[in-house]
Design brief:
The chain is about 15% helix and about 45% strand. The protein is of the alpha+beta class. Strand 15 and strand 16 form a beta hairpin.
Length: about 375
């Protein structure tokens, strides 16, 4: 195998594939990237057996001097290429498939390799459902829900985002939902053609993070395919295939209250800044704040027996009866960061029921915050 490639093109592809590889592997071949030099370009593949990313780098025929396949350490190759000078050509070559030579300017390296035939094959199964959506729509679906994914391994079915189609009073929607039991995020978009019949699937946390990284360099349409057990995304020269979580996502509609009749409208920036300031004195463990709402006024306070107390008053639009409720300040700030509009709408029932939070400028987004005793 022998080919010449721009350092920037190789680095970009390695950035996409190397992060899939687990740093600590009991199976040595899974620490490697598969490099295939073909007539139409170079293909890089990495997998952890749950996720696989394949990226093609287009090259001229003159740049691929010798066809071949090899595997070498994904992290080592990435680190080397990352540290090379910009705007240079990199030559990769292997004669006996046991060493990979890297030449760039005045630098040269020789990396140990493992046989390409030992690299796990990425099975290509039939995907029953396929549709396309705009990259910015997918970014929105991910960004506004990923923060609420659970980290608890015991409730593994919450360790991802629930992707499904819904048909409600406002029409057909493609929806993502995530929850960790303390907060919930639900995001809708108009359903793309071909997505009406998709099954509800749970996309794992790591897959979500890898997809989001890949989308940083992409702004056009994404082709998304689903089977009973896997999800596949393809765009540009990248294909990501991942297993889905094998579990049942809970009936999230049961925790979304319908009787919250107390509506508060407030500046999102002012609320965020006030919560951030007041929570400075809250206890490190609970991050608890108390919120007291009365006519056109909202008071945020926190008390810490070891540090002191703080409070701040804000003007709001509210004409209901007085109510007092407690929240984890971190969860409030997490939700506030997802509000892109100037105003946030909060709907309450009482001090012990879930609270609804809306973005006034994005009708397709709903957040639920569970209260806490303060």
């Amino acid at each position: 195998m022998k080919f010449s490639i721009d350092r920037s093109a190789l680095l970009s592809a390695l950035q996409h594939v190397h992060s899939v590889v687990e740093r600590r592997n009991t199976i040595p071949i899974l620490s490697n990237v598969l490099i295939e030099a073909k007539e139409d370009g170079v293909y890089l593949t990495a997998t952890d057996m749950d996720i696989a990313v394949i990226e093609k780098i287009d090259l001229e025929k003159s740049e691929v001097m010798q066809l071949g396949t090899i595997t070498t350490s994904a992290q080592m190759l990435y680190d080397i290429v990352r540290k090379l000078p910009e705007n240079i050509k990199v030559e990769l070559l292997s004669e006996n498939n046991d060493r990979l030579g890297i030449k760039a300017s005045s630098s040269s390296f020789a990396l140990n390799c493992l046989p390409a035939e030992d690299f796990p094959s990425i099975s290509q199964e039939e995907f029953k459902y396929s549709f396309s959506l705009d990259a910015n729509d997918l970014i929105r679906l991910i960004d506004k829900t990923s923060f609420a994914m659970s980290l608890e391994e015991t409730r593994y079915y919450l360790n991802g985002i629930y992707l499904h189609a819904v048909d409600d009073a406002e029409g057909n929607k493609l929806r993502t939902v995530s929850t960790d039991g303390h907060r919930l995020s639900r995001v809708d978009m108009n359903i793309p053609e071909g997505a009406n019949e998709i099954p509800g699937v749970i996309v794992p946390r790591k897959t979500i993070m890898e997809i989001r990284k890949l989308l940083e360099d992409h702004s056009d349409n994404i082709n998304l395919s689903l089977s009973e057990n896997k999800i596949k995304l393809s765009f540009n020269n990248v294909i990501l295939t991942s297993k889905l979580l094998d579990g049942t996502f809970p009936d999230y509609s049961r925790v979304i209250p319908e009787q919250n009749d107390k509506t508060i409208t407030i500046s999102n920036q002012l609320l965020s800044e006030a919560v951030d300031r007041v929570s400075t004195v809250s206890t490190d463990k609970t991050r608890a704040i108390k919120v007291n709402i009365s006519k056109n006024n909202l008071v945020i306070s926190a008390t810490n027996p070891d540090k002191g107390s703080a409070s701040e008053s804000l003007e709001v639009i509210y004409d209901g009866e007085e109510v007092e409720i407690g929240f984890n300040s971190k969860y409030v700030l997490d939700v506030a960061r997802q509000i892109k509009g100037n105003e946030i709408i909060i709907k309450l029932s009482d001090s012990v029921s879930p609270t609804l939070v809306y973005d006034k400028d994005d009708k397709g987004v709903l957040f639920v915050l569970m209260p806490m005793r303060v």
